[in-house]
User: Fold DUF3039 domain-containing protein from Tessaracoccus rhinocerotis.
Amino acid sequence: MSELAPGSQTVIDERTEQFEDGDHERFSHYVPKDKLMKAMVTGTPVVALCGKVWVPTKNPDKYPVCPECKEIWQSLNPGK
Assistant:
């Protein structure tokens, strides 16, 4: 298993699932873990590697990983 940068969280779900209307546009995004936890508690927005800004409120395990975040993360950690 590869290691993550300190304070990072990766959510990978390769299962195929049926989503509700509108969920097809939703992804799990890569965000520093400490910022994600703070945002979940305080309701402040976070910025993902891909640049998406939002207030996280849903369980990321339910959604596929954002392809852009994944690509950026892999470019920052070559060979992992």
Summary: Strands lie at 46-47, 53-54. Residues 33-77 form one domain.
